[in-house]
Amino acid sequence: MTTTAEAPPPAAPEDAPKARGRATRKRLVPYWLLLPGILWLIVFFAAPLVYQASTSVQTGSLEEGFKVTWHFATYWDALGEYWPQFLRSVGYAATATVLCLVLGYPLAYLIAFKAGRWRNVVMILVIAPFFTSFLIRTLAWKTILADGGPVVGVLNSLHVLDVTSWLGLTEGQRLLATPLAVVCGLTYNFLPFMVLPLYTSLERIDPRLHEAAGDLYARPVTTFRRVTFPLSMPGVVAGTLLTFIPAAGDYINAELLGSTDQKMIGNVIQSQFLRVLDYPTAAALSFILMAAILAMVTIYIRKSGTEDLV
């Protein structure tokens, strides 16, 4: 005996529009979920960006008012006048990023592979500075690097400041109001932004790969160079970006730990907006900084070859 499967009865004509409506609503669900985030970006990112773009091509004064005259020469004038601050910002941010990588990679490696049951405690210590205001943390460094403080006294007794002064990192027998102080502040404040991506990337590495490398008679240095570091490159790239981008636009560290000779482009933009009240120049400098960082980040990501971020 054989049985034949019966086909389901055809849908009634009046049920077809309801089925299409349910299918349409199901397809629209992801877009409805994205709508709050899209509105947030439009209101708090896209709209201010467009307003700043229009401000950068305006002319006038605060008394007479500003009008859009499409004066693109403001960009060239701003870059020609403040290019030293641009280069200084890039230099300070790059130096702080390298120091964060050098200091943060061993710490992230320790947390990922060696911390054991102390892993959560060390992670809390890394994140703990976020519970304190950025401004207060920077003011604390102003106290640490004070001229009469123990740090300066120890470095003077070891004649370290003589070497750093010869290198142009400090001035005389003091640390405050020097490039070294600004870089130290940037490094400290943005170090967690380097450690967390590195830890996330290192934690994903299977420990059995290290064991396999040892079974193949690879030395620990070779294992790190051929296995660990290449597999952690997504974390390295993410950490360097999260450190370099905010550090390049920072102005708090240069304001509190530096002098007029260490002003970064963020200090210039802040001054143009709030003190000089030259809004077109400030907006033009902001767009130049954003374009420069975007170009450098794009080139860096493509050269690094990290498929996770490209």
How is this structure best summarized?
The chain has helices at 16-56, 73-114, 119-127, 134-144, 150-157, 160-166, 179-203, 207-215, 220-231, 233-248, 252-257, 265-276, 279-304; strands at 58-61, 65-68. The chain is an all-alpha fold and 310 residues long.
Give an account of the 3D structure.
With 310 residues, the chain is mainly α. It has helices at residues 16-56, 73-114, 119-127, 134-144, 150-157, 160-166, 179-203, 207-215, 220-231, 233-248, 252-257, 265-276, 279-304, and strands at 58-61, 65-68. The longest helix has 42 residues, at 73-114. It starts with 15 loop residues before the first helix and ends in a 6-residue tail after the last helix.
Q: Any key phrases for this structure?
A:
flat, 13 helices, 310 residues, single chain, mainly alpha, two-stranded antiparallel sheet, 72% helix
Write the layout of secondary structure elements.
Layout: H1 16-56, E1 58-61, E2 65-68, H2 73-114, H3 119-127, H4 134-144, H5 150-157, H6 160-166, H7 179-203, H8 207-215, H9 220-231, H10 233-248, H11 252-257, H12 265-276, H13 279-304
Antiparallel strand pairs: 1-2
